[in-house]
Design goal:
Blueprint: E1 31-40, E2 46-54, E3 58-63, E4 72-77, E5 82-92, E6 95-100, E7 105-106
Amino acid sequence: MHSSSDNDKPIELHVATGDDGGAHHRGTHRKRTLKAAKAVLTNWTTIDCTIRDISETGARLVFGDVVKLPEEFRVLTVMTNTIVPVRLLWQRGLTAGVAFTGPEEAVPVHHKAVTGPPVPPSAGDI
């Protein structure tokens, strides 16, 4: 006789039937927002975007142009000057869904110029 356990539960598969922004895969409710942000790639190369929805586990980003995003990058929120590592879950056109993969942190002081014009080095830095 076969005993019942957690391993015997059926696996629930999710099939996308429409453009729901990835909601069929989401474990938590996202809150609508409109925050200026930047996708931060390697070496602090940035791509402007807007955070349109956010939850404790991820966000939906909207870009001004179609871009090819890497599997992992960081998202900088301009207003709070904080950055969080993310993993790309899906991307369609100008929109991408990401999952947070680490804690949100303050941007290091020497990278604050990422949200404005470059700061020239001072004489003491040369």
